[in-house]
Write a structure and sequence with these properties.
Elements: H1 3-79, H2 84-117
Helix pairs in contact: 1-2
């Protein structure tokens, strides 16, 4: 091989190596970007889980309050057994409380289902 042919061959090899290095660098950068996005997604999920945990705690506290109020209302109701109108009002309030508990539980289940989808 002539001197000129050897130089051309070296330049071609160098160009091929440079192109391969650029491709490798591009692939590595793409993987790094994907990992960063996955980390951001994970942090977002963690924040969502923290928020859902907070909401669940609030719902549990609200349910406990309603249960305490219901126990108190039952005691009041026992003292007013002979008063038919009072008993009817108490029943209406119990229905309202149960509806509120149902709404809280439905909200919790919807949030849980939404989180499971994500």
């Amino acid at each position: 091989m002539t001197r000129e042919g050897q130089l051309t061959c070296r330049k071609t090899k160098k160009r091929n190596v440079t192109e391969i290095l650029k491709q490798v660098q591009t692939k590595i950068q793409k993987l790094i970007d994907e990992k960063r996005q996955a980390l951001r997604d994970l942090k977002a999920m963690q924040n969502r889980n923290i928020e859902l945990t907070r909401q669940i705690k609030q719902m549990e506290e609200r349910i406990a309050e309603l249960e305490k109020k219901q126990i108190w209302d039952i005691c009041v109701d026992e003292n007013a057994e002979n008063n038919f109108e009072s008993n009817n009002i108490q029943l209406d309030m119990d229905e309202v409380k149960m509806t509120e508990i149902d709404l809280l539980l439905n909200g919790y289940l919807n949030n849980l289902a939404e989180t499971s989808k994500n």
